[in-house]
Fold these 4 entries.
Entry 1:
Amino acid sequence: MYNYLDFEKPVADLEAKILELKKLGEQGEAVDVHEEISRLEKRSVDALRDVYKALTPWQKVQVARHPDRPHCIDYLSALFTDFTPLAGDRAYGEDHAMVGGLARFRGEPVAILGQEKGSDTASRLKHNFGSVRPEGYRKAVRIMELADRYQLPVISLVDTAGAYPGIGAEERGQAEAIARSTSACLGLRVPMISVIIGEGGSGGAIAIAAANRVLILEHAIYSVISPEGAASILWKDTTRSRDAATSMKITAQDLLELGIVDAIIPEPLGGAHRGAEAVIEATGDAIARSLEELQTSGKDLREERRDKFLRIGRSV
Amino acid sequence: MNWITNYVRPKINSMLGRRDIPDNLWIKDPESGEMVFHKDLEENQYVVPSSGHHMKISAKERLRFFFDGGQYETLENPKAVTDPLRFRDEKRYLDRLRDARAKTGMDDAVLNGVGQVEGVPLVATVQDFSFIGGSLGIAAGEAIIKGLETALERRLPLVLFAASGGARMQEGIFSLMQLPRTTVAVDRLKEAGLPYIVVLTNPTTGGVTASYAMLGDVHIAEPGALIGFAGPRVIEQTIREKLPEGFQRSEYLMAHGMVDMVVSRLELRDKISRLLRLMLKMPAPGEAALAA
């Protein structure tokens, strides 16, 4: 029923057995399968707990990229009402990797931005696997400027392996588009909250994550380069991704300790893909809490955000 | 005199006889393969006279060539956290830092100088590619911020010479955080109405382009510099296509609207000072001389 990861094999075996027994029970075989099923279910939950309480950074990378993991669009449809997507950068085109527009969050009008990876072949191609081109970042700037003008808080959902590296993207100024988008986040006078829901891939992520509050899901990652990229550049050996994932300190837990993120949103046992509804709900609550804090702080939110980033790394 | 006494020694022998000369006196132009005498190169700011190829130069040389009379005040770099992740790949990061410091005589990849260019006072912030590829970590980020904040305090324009392979991988997420951090300092300078000029030199890639290097009021590129977000190798691997001729070079960027002008190193002082005089409503260079 799930796409299992390598290290989930003990769980996969147990769940396969359970499924088999259930089928047997449905076929009305003259054996009592209920007791065996509940015994196996308990064992499989225990196995899942054992695996997930000791996830290595490299395993977390795989959970963060899990194909069944809820993506931006899942959060949008569950957490927001009245979502009105806005399209285009008014200069070149529309980029489906960057989703954005206006919506209501628990009744209050807000602006939203997020990278969508897609969930099947057709939608993955449409959304370019969540890798944004310059048009997407320029659209994000447009939406942020709109939010600032109409005093709407900005909420962004970050999930990208990185900005798209292609000829067209370079020709149209990928770097400049990212820099402007980061600058737009930092210049907002309204509250901005970012949630890293899967992968926070380098410049492609920070472009919409220079927020007053940066939240991250329990098994999400955030890094200056993918572990594969780091292995190839620093170790000159692509098989060293595990070591890179560990050394680079890219897990939510490491990032909280280093002062890069402000809070971790817990995921259900077995990762977000085993309880999408619960994790989306928890994300909504976390956003609501941060939003209220910021709206009642009485601070100049632009200065608060700028000073917060200037403080990062000054004492580690 | 017969043909035997008139014999001319083959040139090859005279070359073999001069083996004791240190090999760095002659520098090879990577473009034409031509050998150029080091004194001639230095006098020409490391621009190869025949081919016009711009060689990489150190931050100290850059400041010396840029400021009037080679005179400037060096800003001391702020103290910064070193090795925040206690990182090691094949080598300890601390050892890499120590080696880079010994090799370059710099404490990290960025140097700030304050001085005058054709009479225009300004702050110059320079990245040194020879220090771990000019990569951007906490110390380099702090130095860039210091340059920008000094310009803001002293109400001076800032000229930034970018030269960097991108992020300092060994500092992981802290390296990425230098993008928003330096952006804050750039934005504050611009909001104060002070000019911010970026000179893109060979090479400027990765996270550096995705922040302060692409946020200038004016972008100037040295000829033939590699400038881009993703490196050519990464792009080739992603799209599995051959890249077009001159891709990600200064002239290509100018054609695509990303830089305002491609300017020879030898012309930079003149171009930048004229530009700043316009932006700051200072008299043109000739008028200044007449008034004096």
Entry 2:
Amino acid sequence: MITDKTVLGSETQEYFINMGPQHPSTHGVLRLLLTLDGEIIRKVEPHMGYIHRSIEKMCEKDSYQQIVHLTDRMDYLSCHINNEAVCLTVEQGLQLEIPERVKVIRTIISELTRLSSHQLWWGVMGMDLGAITTFLYGFRDREMITDIFEETCGARLTMNYNVPGGLMFDIHPNFQKRTKDFISYFKTKLPEYKELLTGNVIFEERTKGIGYISKEDVISYGVTGPSGRGSGFSCDIRKHHPYSAYDRVQFKEILYEDGDSYARYMVRMDEMVESMHIIEQLIDNIPEGDYKAKTKAVIKLPAGEYYKRVETARGELGVYIISDNKKSPYRVKFRSPGFSNLSALDTMARGCKIADLVAMMSTLDLVIPDIDR
Amino acid sequence: MNNDQIKERILQWFPEAEIPAETGQYLNVIVTPEMLHPLAEKLRYSADTKFDYLFCLTGVDWVTHLMVVYHLDSTKFGHEMVLKVKIPDRVDPVVDTVCDIWKTAEFHEREVYDLFGVKFRNHPDLRRILLEDDWEGYPMRKDYKDEANIVEL
């Protein structure tokens, strides 16, 4: 049998290369130590922690209201959903009844957050594969959502719109109109996304069959969100453990069975349609009422353990609070989706080429502060 | 299976497992380090429990002892539970790894080692994951003192 080595007439040997910590495709500070055989990846060893701030340790000194602000700085593209997760956990501990208005507004803004996160991901994914146009398209459309956020709460990215018990203030009078305008606008733009990238031959060549991971591995590694659903793992927390207003809306859980980069890409593309569908069902039905339930100025959770699972744009976020009935928690753990998703990268990448690794990381949609916390 | 059935099954396997009466949100099972790996294996592979998804693994410092907490979910049956291992030895805490059962444990156990100093026996690559390799001490422990980096208000 003729192997590559005999053709070359000389021995080849494996070598190491550091990808990152400063590398355009890692979108932040992440270092991948690659073991290579020529251009083929034999092993990927992620080194993280470059922006570890020990948010969990900080939480042990903060009040429950303050913790909410720290969670913005984890997955900043799903900031509203992170805030919501902490608020839901605290509300669960206090056994607080939340006004219906709050639940619906939280759900709408969560879905807008998911849309803006997916738009940014789509733009960046195209750019990683060499198509700069997608980046401009993605940011152009995302601008409309950040404008809505700005009008609602004054911030464009780290919003802090949630507080334990409800929302910081009521929605802006323009909110419903602008959201509906955005939905009807984006419905005309999403087909452009598909024309530009989805059916593109070069794009398909670079993603189909690349970065395969099986359903068993996905469950074992705890890969959730669109990355997990691309391998057929039904893990949408919005379906399995509904929170806020997700129990009263109709939407499909997007599942693809192929487990490759293209499947993960398609899950997010289809999810954008579902997100718009959820917003459409709720936007005209925001109940009247208070935007916040009454809470004490100093929140003390009864001694015990509280766990809440929510679905961010990247997957399952878990908030685990242990309370000893003081004004700060005894221990807080954030089970971030990015941390578990990254752990599966080695399994996906083995046997692929370096250039494919970039595409794979894009389809995992890593946000580094979410991994490092 | 509901919580009572899971509880009954675990007590069949390990009568000495401690199951607190008031469990709150999830069924809690507290075990010793020796019991952890055999019980985890049974919970993962038995036909009627099938806890195949470890959705959270973390440590807690209870000052008198350390604890590693495993949140388990079954993608087949949808039931959930919490497995806790109580480690009385704070100086040299050791517990078996569950990497061979749930692959996600590899990174999560490294994090617990990094921040709490719990050593996982048979872990393939037990190194610090978030902090630098030469960091001294385990920051998430309650008795950790670091005047330079942690500002007390």
Entry 3:
Amino acid sequence: MARYVMVIDTRRCVGCMDCVVACKTENNVPEGYNRDWITEEVRGAYPRPQLEIRSERCNHCANPPCVYCCPTGASHVHAQGGVVLVTHEKCIGCKGCLAACPYNARFIHPDGYVDKCTFCLHRVTQGLQPACVSVCPTHCMHFGDLEDPQSDVSQLLQARAHHALLPEAGCQPHVFYLT
Amino acid sequence: MPLELTTTRHNPGIDPALHVWGWEIPVYLFLGGLVAGLMIIAGVRLLLVQPRERQAMVCCTIGPLVGLTLLSLGMLALFLDLSHKLYVWRLYLTFEPTSPMSWGSWILLLVYPALLANTLTHLPETVPAAAKRFPVLVTISDFILARPRVVIGIGLGNMVLGVALGLYTGILLSALPARPLWNTAILGPLFLFSGLSTAAALLHAILVMSFKGEYRPAFADFLLSALARWSHGRAPDPSIAPLLSQADNSFLTVELGLLMLFLIGMVTSAAASQQAAALLLIGPYAAPFWVLVIGLGILTPLLLQFLELQNRIRHTLAPAVLVLVGGLALRFILVFAGQESHWLRAASLP
Amino acid sequence: MPALSRRRFLKISAATVLAAGVASRVTRTFAAAAGAGAGTSGVHRIPTFCDLCFWKCGAIASVRDGRLWKIEGNPLDPLCRGRLCPRGTGGIGAYSDPDRLRTPLIRTRERGEEKWREATWDEALDYIAERMQRIKAAHGPESLALFSHGLGGTFLKHTFKAFGSPNIAAPSFAQCRGPRDVGFRLTFGEEVGSPERTDIENAQCLVLIGSHLGENMHNTQVQEFATAIGRGASLIVVDPRFSVAASKAKFYLPIKPGTDLALLLAWMHVIVTEKLYDADYVAKYGYGFEQFAASLVPSTPEWAYPQTGIDPETIRATAREMARYRPATLVHPGRHVNWNGDDAQRSRAIALLNALLGSWGREGGFYTPASMDVPDYPYPDYPKPAKPKVDNPDHRYPFAHEALTTGIRDATLTGQPYPIKGWLVYATNLLQSLPNQAETIKAIQQLDLLVVIDVIPSEIAGWADVVLPESIYLERHDELNVELFREPFVALRQPVIASPHDQKPNWWIARKLAEKLGLGAFYPWQDIEEYLAYRVKEAGLDFAVLKQNGLIRGPRQPLYFATGAPAAFGTPSGKIEFYSPQLEKAGFDPVPKYVPPVAGPPGAFRLLFGRAPVHSFSRTQSNRILSDMMRENAVWVNAGVARRLGLKSGDRVCLKNQDGVVSNRIAVKATERIRPDCVYLVHGFGHTSRGLRHAFGKGAGDAQLITRYKTDALMGGTAMNVNFVTLEPAEAV
Ligand SMILES: Nc1nc2c(c(=O)[nH]1)N[C@H]1C(S)=C(S)[C@@H](COP(=O)(O)OP(=O)(O)OC[C@H]3O[C@@H](n4cnc5c(=O)[nH]c(N)nc54)[C@H](O)[C@@H]3O)O[C@H]1N2
Ligand SMILES: Nc1nc2c(c(=O)[nH]1)N[C@H]1C(S)=C(S)[C@@H](COP(=O)(O)OP(=O)(O)OC[C@H]3O[C@@H](n4cnc5c(=O)[nH]c(N)nc54)[C@H](O)[C@@H]3O)O[C@H]1N2
Ligand code: SF4
Ligand code: SF4
Ligand code: SF4
Ligand code: SF4
Ligand code: SF4
Ligand SMILES: [Mo]
């Protein structure tokens, strides 16, 4: 049983949005919609502010309210790597999962069904990295299996301080940010 | 330390603030609660009244009859909200135990027959015309009434399903902890009692409209005479009007108590919940909340119906209308403010 | 010129061997991809190189079922190392842009009214040729000027030279890197070039003066920057704005805009007086160090403090930090350095600081680039122009070694030293890239002919008599990219997909125009593949391999003095000139001297500008994919100032400059990331061309507000950070 995670090094990330562009082209995300996006967090005052830039997306939570609330089973946890997916043909568009996600990671596709980050499972199953990871010019994104202690994601989380988003929401997010 | 949070995301309906649910869901939740109330009252009355007793008509027949219509309207609203409508049948290919919506859709499936059974039990004497045209109605009614067990079953069934439906309309939201305002179990009982109060109010209104001559609000004349002509029905017995007002007041009191608990719970917990409560107490939703929900929706009708019971004033439509409006406002405000409440929101620049 | 003599030339044998080696490597890489991509049948991957900016990263475009799908980096390419920047990744948006020019257009109304009639290519080119001949007859061929930016202009330049005009310029000199190149030539006798020869990857201490890597997305630089950060290299960032790079810095110096030269002098003062410099290196390669050192005596950190706002202790600490890691300390030369008019001298100071640290020719400093030897195509000799270039009469700017766009503009306005009557503009939006739009428009009014070759209806196209629609880079061949870089290579741009309408590639246009001008003899080749194949063959390389892989790499050459790169300097003294007799002779400071920047009107903010990672200048705002990343720019205002002005993020304002020019409405970004005395805009927004339906009026244009500029006395560069704005309330819509 693999457990896929993303580990993003905020020290290297420059917020260039290449990950967002790549997702758009790889997955035909319609104009005006985002599966991933950049958040810029500035703390403190000039001339000594601190800036954290994060590439954000669905956190493929281990405790996913979006899945729990789905009345049709369209939102589900995929056997491979615990990735949270939406089966378009099962989705009725009740939007419960949108309201259930504290990260607002989902959106209603113009075609009516709910869409979101898939961790590019279609690529991963082909032995490729997710599109956003594979394009990142600063090599700050890492994708892999948390169950495998040798994987660089495991190693990085071992070696370096990190945090995930909104732990207080209790979803057990699986996208981690190295600080 | 100042915090500056910006995002490049701009998903429609999500940014800058979540707004995926419009008027449909509040209306659906309102009608759902109302019908739940009607079922519970119908069930209770069904168990209490003696066969062939005239009072049965308002609560056990007219109520459920109206319930069936309102429920269908509610379902329509729900359907209109779906963004992938053609796949709605997917709801009934599965049961998702963790999903209140799945529970709801199955409950609704049972609610129809229950309401129908309750209606049929006393239909003949309520609408003799229908009975004449379709003798089978009489047969059914006789069949049911001849079997106390069945009557009890129908009564209990309506009560149980009513409670389930009422709670569900609240749990639907409280199962979405991502929105701090909904992140409380009180929403279930709150919506249940709000449903009961609106139901009692509605029935009370129906009674008031069928009062004798000068006691009845003028505009009801036309309505009733029309109905009467069609059904050859006899006017329902007004004697339970005070009973309904009384019931309504107790429901309203409980509802008020629950609302207070709800707000206290919010204000005394995490920052996100406090900000959420602030939306209602002092924020953009404060005015409608205090005026429509608390003032006009609960306190005023409480007072009016108190006076009615004291026979200081006549029974009028006023309290009923106010309660119904208040109940609807409550759903709108909680659904809209709830979507706006959030854990952490980043500003999006162009 | 010595720079040339130093390029390693590739032996044919070596090339063929290598080509084979690469071929096998590539088939493997692609096999892997194909194996992985199994299932995605009908996907064709065609290598080419990117043109969203001038870095020219190797790219592989995927066409799925005949439709353009995506573009990825070519793993073989040493520039991008398999990863494009966001603009490159979004390149397909340039193909699908619905606002693209579709057919040749001929003006029907007044210039600038953007009123056209569609024309055939023959009609349009006849029209152009006929008017070019008229101008030639009346004033001589020199009275036609070509503004051309980027590789795509190669063949038009050829046609122009054949026609007899020496007046060819690009904004990449006087508006971009010119001062830097001059500063470094004066010091090391050589330029840093593009791609810059900066060894960021191996730097242990990196100093960024303005250079906003991470927002400036020049791919290799950003990748190496991230590597350096990852290694924990010490980073010093000097910027009035808390840039992305600044957020990663060990030392962030919030400098007062325009005072960097004072800081540089103070740094050198500390390094010299504390004897922290590389004495052997200076002794071995340096010239005139004593005079240089003497002139630094007054430039103490205490002196620099009031100028720069950087306290003396920080100045000393950072100077020592640099010395601590030398020679692996890289003081980045920057690229767009036209800031305040002291730019060539400031760049020279940067060169000198690097010289003190001994970083030139050393690992972690400046490496020695190499390119492959690909012979030119044997053309007939060009006619000798009867008149000298028009842009720099009697060397008014003695150290300008490239043509000045603004010089040609001046000549067009004044008719001096001789009139310019026709402009041909290729791939440069002069109204967005030259300072003072009014001057450019006045110059245009003097013209008998303005031809613009573009892909979208840019501002400059709006003023043209004839607009020619070019195929975008994914639809055409171009000149080879024979890169002078860390490791030599030759790259091929080849069509990935057909042009959607009646667009044509630059080589076809240039060739057709030449024919119509009776210069057919200058185009012995019929088709560009013939031309490219010839050059590649002459270089001893295999064109088939090039087509299959997109590029062919040459053998690495020694990068540093220590590993065999010759330590020769193209200066008159043959040494690193700490003291410059050249400058002295020309009447300039032989060692840079600080001149305080022009001050603005009270209450006004200095207008700064720069890059956003997802846009290139003014060329990508109508690219639907990239505009989806950033639709408009916002004006950065210090949070405290914003509070004082009662503004919050998202509020709309207009910017009004010192000359009363008022910008579009623009959103405020109230932020703790900028000094209170300046505001910041991302360049390239606020389009005024109605043809750009999507980009029109979105955000505000810095170009519009840059009515003033200060010309660099050494080389004619136009400094643009000398404008000031106030924030005016914009009535809500
Ligand atoms: N995404 C993207 N990347 C690009 C380009 C693009 O269009 N888009 N263009 C490419 C080209 S051709 C070039 S030339 C480069 C330009 O990129 P750079 O060479 O980095 O250009 P700068 O003018 O240094 O960048 C502006 C920065 O200088 C700061 N600055 C302004 N005034 C001063 C000052 O007085 N002192 C100091 N220390 N800093 C100051 C600004 O705050 C801003 O951070 O970018 C290249 N990369
Ligand atoms: N105000 C201000 N001025 C600046 C700068 C700044 O930051 N602010 N930056 C300066 C710098 S560093 C530089 S390098 C210059 C850059 O100046 P320019 O090279 O003029 O850059 P752009 O404004 O992008 O103009 C490029 C034009 O070429 C067109 N184009 C794009 N691709 C093609 C193609 O394939 N074929 C043809 N025929 N046309 C094409 C685009 O549509 C656009 O109209 O600007 C300089 N001027
Ligand atoms: S591509 Fe990489 S560096 Fe750029 S924003 Fe995304 S994660 Fe950050
Ligand atoms: S991030 Fe949101 S959508 Fe993704 S799994 Fe967690 S809750 Fe669900
Ligand atoms: S919108 Fe679709 S995926 Fe989301 S909960 Fe409803 S049915 Fe499930
Ligand atoms: S993993 Fe794939 S789907 Fe998710 S953000 Fe990255 S590219 Fe988009
Ligand atoms: S740096 Fe970006 S835009 Fe420029 S060539 Fe490379 S990929 Fe293209
Ligand atoms: Mo530039």
Entry 4:
Amino acid sequence: MLRAFKPVQRLLGGTLRDLAPLVLVIGFFQLVVLQQPFPDLLEVGIGLVFVVIGLTLFIGGLEIGLFPLGEAMAVAFARKGSLAALLGFAFLLGFSTTIAEPALIAVADQAGKAAAAAGVVADRPEAIDHYALWLRVTVALSVGLALVIGVIRIVRGWAIQVLIIGGYTGIAVMTAFAPPEIVGIAYDSGGVTTSTVTVPLVAALGVGLASVIRGRNPVVDGFGLIAFASLTPMMFVMAFGAIWKHI
Amino acid sequence: MIDLLWTTTLSTLLDVAPIVIVLGVFQFAVLRRPLARPGRILLGLGLVIAGMTFFLVGLESALFPLGTTMARQLTEPAFLGTAAASTDWRDYGWVYVFAAAIGFATTIAEPALIAVALKAAQISGGAVPPLGLRLAVAFGVAIGVALGCLRIVTGTPLPWCIIGGYVVVLLQTRVTPRLIVPLAYDSGGVTTSTVTVPVVTALGLGLAAAIPSRSPLIDGFGLIAFASLFPIMTVQAYAWLASTWSRWAKARREKAAVP
């Protein structure tokens, strides 16, 4: 029991340090700039305690469970030697985690409203929902594809710059042709796709693969999967906006 | 709060379910290999889900309402002290300060970023210090969100800013140590998940609604894109500075050693 206490203490200390800036910023603006009293101080206090407990448990669980799991699966896939199985896994991992992502659901709903305001979609709830659903499917497909490309890159050892430059050029060209009301949403959708549970798993997978495959450096080749997952949605959403407008 | 705890548990489980299904199917049907230490991994998964739940409940009952209310209050004409809603970018000073401060503070508390920083420190053998990386990313988000707010106020077209930003990122890549480049690109995507998105989105929508001739639906977007672009620049800049500094210090030591 005592042995288990030390890491908990270390984690808790780290969490408190991580949250201090947030508390300071909100406190300063609330009391000094806006000069408003704190509403429901008790509830805010309980909420903060919850945040501290939650972050501590999350990071503990990450080190015990999620990181070893991601690495073990990367090693198992490399031993099995089937690229098709590995790519299928990467695609499904990207697709399934993105389609249910709450931040994406929120952005897709707003995108539906923006499209209705621009007159691309009929201003009826079912038409907007239909649009938002297809937008989510599009983004989920693009994240699945991003992980597939990213895994191929790790296996083949391509330099990341080449793919990123290609992606940025694609985005710049597509921006010129995409309908203006979709551009802002497309740019934002890149950032919201990678959720808090997906990131550690994807990072562990990439680093695990790069450490198992001979001739790859885990630092140089292991990272980059998340970068692709935030790049392809921008292109796919712009393509989606342009196609939707013309059918 | 008990209600919120319950609904958040359900939504976290729903969020994690597809991941667990995909992992399970591949582990047992494709890889057909028993998991090493299954008990420990299950415990870890349980802790992650419980941690996410507590974290989100705490944020939703304590910090998000405050953050979103403050974003609204800071953009109200009554606070800004202008007669009507103003279009002069100089009237929104506190908005930029708040944007930078809240961007920095939420990024330091972002669980996904902590995960990537831990991983980077582990595989680089400590060459990439976790706190240094997180500070570099947090400064990037702070600059990004503040400039993003300035863009909403001035109404500069978003594509110009983003494509211009990409050009800077690519130019920086030429002088950044090769080890850090993929990590820098990744740090753009991980900065904006659980904590940062809701507060930053509220800020953008409030700002676009407060300024005449801006539409929240079209001009309110773009802050997240800014918040994912600038960390790539600051992480590359940090790595470049660190390597230049160590090269310079080494050269000076060698010079001192030769009499």
